[in-house]
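Appendix C reproduces, verbatim, an entry submitted by the partner laboratory led by Prof. M.T., so that reviewers can inspect both the input and the predicted structure.
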Amino acid sequence: KLWTFLFGTCSTERVFQRKLACAMSSTVKFNVSGKVYEVLREPTLALHPNSVLCQLAEEWDQQDPIFLEADPDLFKYIIEYHRHRKIYLPISIPKASVLREAAVLGLEMRDADIEQEEPGLLAFSQKVDATERMMRECKADTLVQLIIKQAIVKSAHMGGKTFVVKLDDMKADSPKVKVYQTEYQCQHREVPEFHFVFKFLASACDANMKTHIQSRLDSWSQRNGYRAKLRTFSEDNLDVLFEV
C-alpha cells in the first residue's frame, strides 16, 4: 500500500529505482549534439516544469547523458533563460535563432526576454565600410562581365584583331525606355535602359574600383591572347582597349 501511495499503481522496481536515483542527483547531464552540459535540477530546471528539459530530467537514469539534437552553441542561452528568465545575447547571434530553439524545447520565450548587445561605434563603422567595399566589388564584377560579353562578340567579328569596347556598344544591345521631358508627360525621348544601369554600376567609380576592374580584365584577356587597358571610366563613359 505504501508503494502504491508513493509511486502509483503502475510502479515497478525499475521505476522506483529511477525515481530514487533522480531524487538523489542534484544535477542532470545533457549531450547536445556531442557537447555535454551539466545543469542543476534546483533551481535551474525546476523554474520551468513544463519545459522539455525538465521533463526529460525526471526520467533520467543517471547513466548516459540525455541526448538532445539541438544547437550546442545556442544551448547555453537556453540554460541562461532557465536560470534568469532573461538572456543577454551578443550581436553576432540573431534573436530568431534562439527563439526557435526555445520553442522546440517547450519554452515560452518572448522577444522582450532577450536583450541584444548593441554594436559599438567602431564596430558599426567597420561593418559599414565592409558593406560598401563589397558593394563596390559586386558592381565592378558586374561591369567586367558585361565588358567581357561585348569583347567575346567583337573578337569573333574582328578575327583576332585589336578592338575597343565602348559604352555605346552596351547601350546598343539594350531595350529603350521612354523618358518624359515635362511634368505633363506630353514630350518624351527614348533612352537605352542600360544608360541608367550603367550610371548605377559606375556610381562608386574611384581608383580602387578601376584597379579592381583592370585586374579582372587582365585575367580574362591574358587567357584569350589579348592585352586589356581600361582607358576611360566614369559615370558617363567607358572605353576598354583590347590589343593583340
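Residues 1-7 have pLDDT under 50 and may be disordered. Additional entries are available on request from the coordinating office.
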